[in-house]
Amino acid sequence: MAAASVERSYEDSPLIAEANRLMDRLPGYRVEIIGGQLLASPPPDGPHARALTKLMRPFIAAGLDDGPTEVLQGVGLWLPTGSEDYVIPDLAVVDADIDDHLIENNCYDPVCFRLVLEVTSSNFRSDLRTKVAAYAEAKVPVYVIVDREHRRLHVLTGPAGRDYAAHRVHSPGERVVLPASLGAEVTLDVTGVLEAGRRKQAPDRE
């Protein structure tokens, strides 16, 4: 059953109104609300975007962007953790009927999401801690984290309460096969993904 979309006034959604004001003042920032707290992330750097481009390829090659699913960047996921909570994962595999599940503020029912993926930036602790609990409570089946800070790839499956039943950490040199629940076999090359996301040292300026 599709979730009914809800439009509320700013008086009824003060946090969302503040989030929208923040985005107006900070162009390029991603603003989310988790547990009633505003989280503002700076614009991604080039390697972050490069890693996402590389990550999309195996999902698309597996046929997940054509048919019953789609592969999308930056689509909002409405959270069950608070009356105004939402997140915007870097990448997601969603059911193709996602448009029928719009809830509010351009965010969609988590029932549509088969996988969410985050590529860490300066606020990497949020991806590794806060969002683990948020996505688990939303019952997102698979959560993948590209941890650029520690050069690891995390695959979390089996949401259970505020955590995941299985949390596997993969290092460079490994090839990771994601769960079949996505609808196709997807293999990620950990080295390739981490190298794409590696920050290059800025050249010295005289």
Q: Evaluate the radius of gyration.
A: 17 Å
Number of helical segments with 4 or more residues: 4
> Which residue ranges are poorly predicted, with pLDDT under 50 across at least 5 consecutive positions?
1-10
> What string, H for helix and E for strand, traces the elements in order?
HEEHEEEEEEEHEEEEEH
How much of the sequence lies in strands comes to 25-35%
* Global shape: globular
Q: What is the mean pLDDT?
A: 91
Approximate helicity band: 10-25%
Task: Please tag this protein with its features.
six-stranded mixed sheet; 206 residues; alpha+beta; 14 strands; four-stranded mixed sheet; globular
Give an account of the 3D structure.
The N terminus is likely disordered. It contains four helices and 14 strands. Helix 2 packs antiparallel against helix 4. By secondary structure, it is an alpha+beta fold. It is globular, with a radius of gyration of 17 Å. Strand 4 and strand 5 form a beta hairpin. The strands form four sheets. Strands 3-6-9-10-11-12 form a six-stranded mixed sheet. 24% of the residues lie in helices and 32% in strands.
Please describe the topology of this protein.
Elements lengths: L13 H12 L4 E5 L2 E5 L4 H16 L7 E5 L2 E3 L7 E2 L3 E5 L6 E3 L2 E2 L4 E7 L4 H14 L4 E6 L4 E9 L2 E8 L4 E3 L9 E3 H7 L10
Parallel strand pairs: 4-8, 9-10
Antiparallel strand pairs: 1-2, 3-6, 4-5, 6-9, 7-8, 10-11, 11-12, 13-14
Task: Describe what is shown at a glance.
The chain has 206 residues and is of the alpha+beta class. It is built from four helices and 14 strands. A hairpin with a 2-residue loop joins β11 and β12.
